[in-house]
Amino acid sequence: MQALYGQLVVGLINGSFYALLSLGLAVIFGMLNIINFAHGAFYMMGAFAAYFLLNWAGLGYWWALLLAPLMVGAVGVLVERTMLQWLTGLDHLYGLLLTFGLALVIQGVFQNEFGSSGLPYAIPAELRGAQNLGFMFLPNYRAWVIVFSLVVCLATWFVIERTKLGAYLRAATERPELVRAFGIDVPRMITLTYGFGVALAALAGVLAAPINQVRPLMGADFIIVVFAVVVIGGMGSIMGSIVTGFALGLIEGLTKYFYPEASSTVVFVIMAIVLLVKPNGLFGRTA
Amino acid sequence: MAEAANGALLTVAGLEAWYGESHILHGVDFHVRPGEVVTLLGRNGAGKTTTLKSVMGMIGKRSGSIRFDGAETIRLTSDRIARAGIALCPEERGIFASLDVKENLTLPPVVRPGGLSLDQIFELFPNLKERLGSQGTKLSGGEQQMLAIGRILRTGARLLMLDEPTEGLAPVIIQQIGRTIARLKQSGFTILLVEQNFRWASKVADRFYVMEHGRVVDGFASADLEANKQKLQDYLGV
After folding, report:
1. Are B133 and B102 within 8 A, CB to CB?
2. ipTM of the predicted structure?
3. What is the mean pLDDT of residues B96-101?
4. Dist. CA B59–CA B51, nearest whole Å
5. Contact, A219 vs A41, CB < 8 A?
6. What residues contact A269, with CB distance under 8 A and at least 6 apart?
7. Residue A133: per-residue pLDDT
8. E-assigned strand segments in A129-255
């Protein structure tokens, strides 16, 4: 039974990363109509930013949690301003190819500099140790990742679904030219949205650094599953990303316990079934 | 069409506009004075909607001159034109499906003082108050038109541009919109209408311009409508 609970916690941890990453992808797709294949590279850059901050500037985990998303988010803003903005109105394929190429370049540069093996990043002193829940030991850091991710996801959902800024974002997703004609600087909003989505990926990278080590290909391994999560949740659906991210993490964990051979394919089997039954995803809006 | 435009709130001169390679407007000239209701008439494809969109800065490629309140706006982006005090109610209403009625109504930011309060808008369109929590696109066509007009009244824009506000609506709703325009005129709003229904427009407009093939080809005051009726019917093919 301990093993089952252990796998459930691992599932929730993975679910946290799935949710954070797919949330960023959903925000970017909803607003820019771009399938951001560079998302895994930005996730990796978040973890590396935390590593650099610690080893080059002496700034620890808590600073990294704040600064790494800002730094990588600024890179995202630069990418949107210099490259992605020129793809407005073109087919999805252009954005997909550009961001895919960008991911390869970024990962290649990091691999060239740091090799393929993982760099260690320690759990902050405040979050070491574990809690005895009676039926299992729950590591403090893992509990923190789950709770913090959930809070960030729900806060993002709240901003998008319940605030004025979110109303601008949702409206601009439908008719950007009309929202601009109401006096909103839509191009700036698009840039900042992309930066925010990228910052979410970087935040997930910082959270992952003490668990998964810091590796140039840490995002490449992850991003395919995250895209499956986005498809299952419904492209562009905020709540879909959050719920599906956590749920699929849990399902993966359960599969690891009951039928480990299928644990790496279960997400894709679910994706195939969802696409057959509900092509717009579980939370996707019909056109 | 080169009438004296002294004191005009909006003066459009030699306006040309393109959709991609298609040349749509070929030198449009007209003006709107403060407090006037001016209607652009013309057949489908004459360039009326493109003219409104060009004034609003929503057409990428345009040239000529558009002066609003004395300032040239031809090179401004649409968000800056909106902030200068022009608002557009588009032909297809532009109600956002992902927003409820209240969010749709309060979406355009207030760009300057002088706009209507929500209570004043509900006084004009009582239906909206009862449907505040509904999804915007779940409203009837008439209610959606009220919402589309209501939301630009909040902004404080001095020039309201309404593109075919009566299209596809029941007669009772058309009358209500006519009364609303009359009240807005009384309150000092300046209104530029695009309308196919010139009989309805004759009751609310002070002046008319007729457009053909991307140009303004004629213009007259409302008082002269009867004298120009045959000519107008020829223009509009009715």
Report:
1. yes
2. 0.92
3. 93
4. 9
5. yes
6. A262
7. 85
8. 130-132, 137-139
Count CB-CB contacts under 10 A for residue B199.
9
How far is Cα A52 from Cα B4, in angstroms, rounded to an integer? 68
Among the partner-chain residues B77, B98, B107, the one whose CB lies closest to the CB of A182 is B107
Q: Which of A85, A182, A191, A239 to mutate to test the interface with B (most CBs of B within 10 A)?
A: A182
Task: Enumerate domains of chain B plus CATH numbers.
Answer: 10-236 (3.40.50.300)
**Nearest residue to A239 via CA among A158, A146, A144:** A158
Q: Are the Cβ atoms of B107 and A167 closer than 8 angstroms?
A: yes
User: What is the distance between the alpha carbons of residues A61 and A71, in angstroms, rounded to a whole number?
Assistant: 15
Structure tokens at B92: 């297809």
State residue B63 phi and psi, 5-degree precision: -145, 175
B107 touches chain A (CB under 8 A): yes
Contact B48, B11 (CB under 8 A): no
Q: In chain B, what residues touch A167 (CB-CB under 8 Å)?
A: 99, 103, 106-107
As a whole number of angstroms, the distance between CA B140 and CA B147 comes to: 10
- Which tokens hold the place of A107? 């990962």
Share of chain B above pLDDT 70, in %: 97
**Contact A89/B at CB under 8 A:** no
Instruction: Report pLDDT digits (tens) over A250-260.
Output: 999 999 999 99
3-class DSSP string for A86-116 = HHCCCCHHHHHHHHHHHHHHHHHHHHHHHCC
| Residue in A163, A177, A189 to test binding to B, most B beta-carbons within 10 Å | A177
DSSP B9: S
Instruction: Please list every residue in chain A whose beta carbon sits closer than 8 Å to the beta carbon of residue B87.
Output: 182
For residue B119, the surrounding DSSP H or E stretch is helix B118-124
Residues forming a β-bridge with B65: B13
B115–A contact, CB cutoff 8 A? no
pLDDT tens digits for range B3-42:
446 689 999 999 999 998 899 999 999 999 999 999 999 9
Residue B137, by phi and psi: left (phi above 0), alpha (psi -120 to 50) or beta?
alpha
Chain B residues touching residue A177 (CB < 8 angstroms): 58, 78
Q: Which two tokens stand for residue B155?
A: 């902004």
> What does the mean pLDDT of chain A come to?
93
**Alpha-carbon distance B182 to nearest alpha carbon in chain A (angstroms):** 24
How far is residue A45 CA from its own chain's centroid?
A: 12
Amino acid at residue number B130? E
Residues B235 and B238: their CA atoms lie apart, in Å, by 8
Mean pLDDT across A223-237: 90
Instruction: For residue A180, list chain B residues with Cβ-Cβ distance below 8 A.
Output: 58, 77-79, 82
One DSSP character per residue, B30-74 reads EEE-TT-EEEEEE-TTSSHHHHHHHHTT-SSEEEEEEEETTEE-T
Cβ–Cβ under 8 Å, residues B185 and B37: yes
